[in-house]
Design goal:
The protein has about 280 residues and is an alpha/beta fold. Helix content is about 35%, strand content about 15%. The protein is built from 10 helices and 9 strands. The strands form 2 sheets. Strands 4-5-6-1-7-8 form a 6-stranded mixed sheet, with helices on both faces. Strands 3-2-9 form a 3-stranded mixed sheet, with no helix packed on it.
Length: about 280
């Protein structure tokens, strides 16, 4: 990823998207590969050293209401990361910053005196975004941040994220099932299948000319973009492999319409547009 860029991570449920996002922010341990942030490998850092990166990498979760502490008022929820990550702020400065964060996400300043249960899902997600912004991060991992919201509210949250990204220079790792939103927000798209990135490229290239058969099947399930156009759906046959089984070769071969005998021992060569990597690299250039 690059500074200010949105990379979308898509794939079916259980393929490892959320796990990857949690690994990036340090909520899960890494079992293979590496995570580098600004040239430094952060997945092997000790807890004390890793804490310095927590301010720079934040996360927004799928269900905003369960991600907010129901026993704390909104002002206290937003003040907590300010005290933890910005100790230079005094009490009055923290109150001023809480008000600024609420205005930044288009919420009334008096929301600070209310409880989480008093807000709708969309409002709660705005507050969760404000909390993620409190430490002044460079990267935000959005883990299905719009999937629990109504369609109209989804659009508002996506527009808000894009506005904040332009204003603050944020990079977004946008994990989603909604390919329509992904197409509108992401500069690059990574497609995951059973823990493997099978395709990675510019959004226009992935949506317009997908290289991997799994990507083509995934996109074929999307409604046609033009009214009246006939959907060209590609049904996947074959047995879905166990999520815990260790497979040799290409993980998609049991369902792939283009599988060859050699796929059982090694994955087919990928084109440059769909190449995958064994590490997560966030390089600010």
């Amino acid at each position: 990823m690059r500074r200010g860029e949105t990379v979308a991570l898509v794939g079916e449920s259980g393929c490892g998207k959320s796990t990857l996002g949690k690994c990036v922010v340090g909520l899960e341990s890494v079992s293979g590969g590496a995570i580098r942030f600004g040239g430094t490998r952060i997945d092997t850092l000790r807890r004390g050293a890793r804490q310095g990166y927590a301010r720079r990498i934040q996360m927004i979760f799928q269900d905003p209401l369960t991600s907010l502490n129901p026993r704390m008022k909104i002002g206290a929820i937003l003040a907590e990361p300010l005290r933890n990550y910005r100790p230079e702020l005094g009490p009055q400065e923290i109150r001023n910053e809480v008000a600024r964060l609420l205005r930044l996400v288009r919420m009334p300043v008096d929301s600070a005196e209310r409880w989480p249960h008093e807000f709708s899902g969309g409002q709660a997600q705005r507050i969760a975004i404000a909390r993620a912004l409190a430490p002044q991060p460079e990267l935000i991992v959005c883990d299905e941040a719009t999937s629990a919201l109504d369609v109209s509210i989804k659009a508002q949250i996506v527009n808000l994220l894009q506005d904040l990204q332009a204003e603050l220079g944020l990079a977004l790792l946008f994990i989603s099932h909604d390919l329509g939103i992904v197409r509108s927000i992401a500069q690059r798209v990574a497609v995951m299948y059973r823990g493997t990135l099978v395709e990675l490229g510019p959004g226009d290239a992935v949506f317009g000319a997908p290289q991997h058969p799994y990507t083509r099947a995934l996109l074929s399930a999307v409604l046609p973009p033009k009214p009246g156009a006939a959907p060209a759906r590609q049904k996947l046959e074959g047995e879905l492999p166990s999520a815990t089984a260790r497979l040799s070769g290409c993980p998609f071969r049991s369902r792939c319409p283009e599988a060859q005998p050699g796929c059982a021992s090694e994955s087919p060569a990928r084109s440059q547009a769909s190449g995958a990597a064994s590490s997560v690299s966030i390089s600010w250039v």
